[in-house]
Amino acid sequence: MHPESLPPAFVDRRFSVREALHNGVSPGRLRASDLDATVWGVRASTVADADLLHRAALFSSRLPTESLFSHSTAARLIGIPVPWWSERDARLHVSVAAPRRAPHAAGIIGHRSRLTERDGVVMRGVRVTSPVRTWLDLASMVRFADLVAAGDYIIHWRLPLAERDELSRAVESFGRARGAINLRKALPLLSDRAESPPESELRVILAVAGLPSPDINHALVDTDTGRHLRPDFTFREHRVILEYQGDYHRTREQWRKDMTRRSKLEAEGWYVMEINADDLRSPEELVARVRTVLARRR
């Protein structure tokens, strides 16, 4: 038996249960399986996958208009990388400006923050904290290396979401809020050339250990073809290259390309050291290994 038709005003859109009841929709109709009831008090007349954007849009229907999705929720909606455990957390972070009370409801984590009008933007149809403000908020919930990776993404040279100076000014005005110490430490480590979060983490490991600062994704010229090669990390003085090998390198085609690339670099007198995710889990051993290689190449 098919459920009765909804009034035209409620077709193909989100609406509150209160609004529907007020307009004559029965409680039984609101419990029908063709309506998305992911968020308490809200229905959507087209059942969709309960992905992040969809859930955020549903919550927007019941949250105050001044609310902003923030912290890791904003980061994910914008595209800023966050740790895997954050992506698995179904709860949504929502911030309001003080002195308003932080929102409280099942499925959300409410925050009361010092927000200004510049801290809010519309992204993919929902209100979120700006990339700069989101980076500030991430400092209170992610590891230091993850904070650097997020900052790298925000200022990446190809399509920057903000300039380094904007982050610097924001940190300066952040005062002593939670995470401020890590923000100040992260600023000088940011790079607009990092291509992935693991590369950012590797750079943090090297910097914290006091190793020389490598060039990041800096072009080297292939003397045979004239084409540019862009190693992940280049220690020019030592003629040592560090290459992070992610899972995408495991395809047959990529494996062959990597082998040829490495052979050409070594023929030019470079020492190529390949690093993977397992190495990042043992930073002390990795640092000792890199230090040994650099000492031998002086």
UniProtKB/TrEMBL annotation:
Residues 232-290 form the DUF559 domain. Pfam families: DUF559 (PF04480). This is DUF559 domain-containing protein. It comes from Glaciihabitans arcticus. The lineage of its organism: Bacteria, Bacillati, Actinomycetota, Actinomycetes, Micrococcales.
